[in-house]
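Quick one:
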Amino acid sequence: AVVSTQSTGEKLKSDLARSGHSMGMMEELEPKATLRAIEMDMFGGQEKDGKSETSNKLIFSVKYFKELEELRKFVSSVEPDIKQLCGTVLQVTFAIRKQQSIGNVIVRNRTLSETKPEVTTDIGSRSQKCGKARCKTCPFLFEPSENITVNGEPLLLDFSLNCSDKNIIYIAQCTICSSLGQKLKDDTYFGQTMTPMHIRMNGHRSKFVIDERLLFEKSALSMHCFLAHKSQFSMEFFKLGIVKRVRPVDLDREEEKLIQKFRTNICGLNRIVVVR
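Output:
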């Protein structure tokens, strides 16, 4: 049994190394993983502070590759060996790193001083719809009456803005995954754009294509649909909203603040899409 377990572990290391992980780093982290398993056993499956919401998860961040589904099935098949090694049942999760987004690559070369709107914190009661007849974003915007939660925390939108505004931080939330019962959900993405919001959404929408070009890897939204519910592969399954408008030079900082506050870089669609 020991020989079988060791060979299984070596194959798992080999597959993870092929997907972009450093063997040296895995060797360094292996003792820590063993120590954590011992602590989990001592404390009855909970962390020392009693919080166990994510303590039974083992997350690997990997690059997307064609044999990913085979690797996932293989890991599922060796769950008894993993339990024997760790002393508890672990949920092995693969976090898929998408390709670099082309969202703002071109517009970031524009002069940052083109426009300098004042930062607004006024939350009004108007709709965020621009009202243009041919706008494809308006039908999918949150309404003022809707309550928005991200990983159990409430989020307020700025309804003094609409989808024709630029230099904004926006939210996109998958309606399929947000309807699930658990508190933490892989359903929300925070993004930024220096262009009008509806133009940025058209950019996301153009990536909902499945062909040899792999365009879906260019957007966190399309990649999420492809991996989480491929049969419902459409931008129409996302609700959209504008969180705030900021100065162009503050876009990166304000986006990161929201990502960290609502933990969408851990349980969400920011830069990774979780495959279970």
